Amino acid sequence: MIKTIGIIGAGQMGCGIAHVSAAAGYKVQLYDIAADRIEAGLATINGNLARQVSSGKMSDEDRKRALALIKGSVDINDLSQADLVIEAVTEDETVKRKIYGQVCPVMKPDALLATNTSSLSITRLASATDRPERFMGIHFMNPVPVMKLVELVRGIATDEETFRAAKEFVAHLDKTVTVAEDFPAFIVNRILLPMINEAIYTLYEGVGTVDAIDTAMKLGANHPMGPLQLADFIGLDTCLSIMQVLHDGLADSKYRPCPLLVKYVEAGWLGRKSGRGFYDYRGDVPVPTR
Ligand SMILES: CC(=O)CC(=O)SCCNC(=O)CCNC(=O)[C@H](O)C(C)(C)COP(=O)(O)OP(=O)(O)OC[C@H]1O[C@@H](n2cnc3c(N)ncnc32)[C@H](O)[C@@H]1OP(=O)(O)O
Ligand SMILES: NC(=O)C1=CN([C@@H]2O[C@H](COP(=O)(O)OP(=O)(O)OC[C@H]3O[C@@H](n4cnc5c(N)ncnc54)[C@H](OP(=O)(O)O)[C@@H]3O)[C@@H](O)[C@H]2O)C=CC1
Predict the structure, then answer these.
(1) Whose CA is nearest to atom 27 of ligand 2?
(2) Which of 111, 114, 144, 243 holds its CA 20 to 30 A away from the CA of 91?
């Protein structure tokens, strides 16, 4: 029976997962290496819960109850009571493997471990844990409190009991499950990221400006955000990592990351989270950088 959720990484996804888990009544232990990340993360969660209160989706009592269920920590030993640990650190296989080496000895032997990876092989990540049969992908979408979908991905060793528990957990969050096989970037990102990468090529080749490309896709294809705005929202480092996984994993040149995406990441222009990407967010309104 899952009662306590451990979350590794207090970035945008870790905080979103903490938010929806606590709102559904789970106890949440949110871990990050940096204390300021935890502090900022808890403030973001509170802000997003407050938005749900002001739009009438949640009572203020429930906001307070949810917030009280979340404990932040920079000590990995605090994950020892979790029944399910969800890893949501940077999309980098080396970083994730290192974390599994640290968290597995701390976890209860029968606890489940999941990754929120956007693209990496679940089977390969599982091999860096002491519990491949109790390891799988639980892939939330951003922003977690709003998006209804969660992709579930089994590795070669994931057992049925783990899959069933993950499905029940997601249903309890009032989200819809889709099952994807363990192929690079699964379903959503296999389709979405090449579209975003193509939008960046469209910018790189001078076919349109940032504003023209985003307006075209918002008004011409009814997308809620333009592809460059969405890239900034996801994080350009994450977008690049996903394209690299697609390119390496499927060995097809159609997945070649756009050199302009590489350049933005090399500049540290990672999108909304770093204050600048295809838009500059440092003023009152976002301003296109091209
Ligand atoms: C990379 C991966 O591995 C996979 C992925 O996640 S790919 C990315 C998938 N996500 C998308 O494609 C998102 C596309 N964008 C959208 O759907 C919409 O623009 C959006 C839902 C994000 C915002 O919608 P909007 O109508 O412009 O904004 P707005 O009216 O201000 O907000 C609608 C609701 O979203 C919530 N919201 C908006 N941004 C939010 C955020 N960053 N965090 C939490 N909640 C947020 C608001 O609280 C609001 O709910 P309330 O009415 O209860 O307050
Ligand atoms: N962004 C998106 O739209 C989506 C992302 N994902 C996936 O979710 C995961 C997280 O992405 P996202 O939240 O956007 O990324 P962020 O960059 O917002 O957050 C990552 C967090 O992990 C922390 N971190 C890095 N290394 C460690 C470590 N060794 N121990 C503990 N914490 C660590 C980072 O801290 P610091 O900054 O100090 O390094 C940061 O707080 C990735 O796997 C990504 O692919 C899945 C769905 C959607």
Answers:
(1) 89
(2) 111
Tell me whether residue 87 is one of the annotated catalytic residues. no
68 is an annotated ligand-binding site residue = no
Residue nearest to atom 16 of ligand 2 (CA): 11
| 229 CA to centre of own chain | 17
| Distance between Cα 192 and ligand 2 center (Å) | 19
Q: Residue 118 catalytic?
A: yes
Given 116, 118, 119, 241, the catalytic residue: 118
- Whichever domain contains 226, its CATH number is 1.10.1040.10
Q: 216: which 2 tokens? A: 């075209």
Q: Report how far apart, in Å, the C-alpha atoms of 193 and of each of 13, 60, 65, 243 are.
A: 17, 37, 37, 7
pLDDT tens digits, one per residue of 233-247:
999 999 999 999 999
Per the structure, the count of domains in the chain is: 2
Question: Which of 180, 208, 223 is the C-terminal boundary of a domain?
Answer: 180
Instruction: Output the six-digit token pair for 10.
Output: 């207090």
Question: Could you count the other beta carbons within 10 Å of the beta carbon of residue 247?
Answer: 17
ipTM field: 0.93
Record the pTM. 0.97
Tell me which residue range forms the domain holding 240. 188-278
- Tell me how far the alpha carbon of residue 35 lies from the centroid of ligand 2, in angstroms: 15
For ligand 1, atom 16: residue with the closest CA: 224
Domain boundary among 162, 180, 198: 180
